[in-house]
Amino acid sequence: MASGGSAIRGSRVGAGPMGEQDRGFHAERIQVSYWDALGNETVRYFAANLPDEEIPETIDCPTSGLPAGRDKENPPSVAKLEPYKTHLAYVKERRTEKEAEQLLEDALQQLRARRGTAS
């Protein structure tokens, strides 16, 4: 017969007579509803003694993955997804040689100025 641990089956490990009301199922809680842009409601529970400033205004909705806010009439808007950019799109955005040379020159001047003041 295999046995392990000293806890009685079905008992809560770590539950003692002190502080049991402050955690677990006995803790006093408040219910806060969040709505996303699609109208999905998500309910979260927070400790009743938690100040209002510590309860988040927005969360990520687990059903849609969109942001969800506490205001049902004005939920956060749907996040705008940018289309996937190919390597060629990034190549087209690169700076010209003249711009790159100017950036390099500016950076070198800043470094020389710092060296001159540090010496």
UniProtKB/TrEMBL annotation:
The keyword Protein biosynthesis does not apply. It comes from Herbiconiux ginsengi. Binds to RNA polymerase (RNAP), stimulating transcription from principal, but not alternative sigma factor promoters. Forms a complex with the RNAP catalytic core and with free principal sigma factors. It comes from the Bacteria. GO terms for molecular function: bacterial-type RNA polymerase core enzyme binding. GO terms for biological process: positive regulation of DNA-templated transcription. Keywords: Transcription, Transcription regulation. Gene3D superfamilies: RNA polymerase-binding protein A. InterPro entries: RbpA_sf (IPR038638), RNApol-bd_RbpA (IPR025182). This is RNA polymerase-binding protein RbpA. Belongs to the RNA polymerase-binding protein RbpA family. Residues 1-21, 56-78 are annotated as: Disordered.
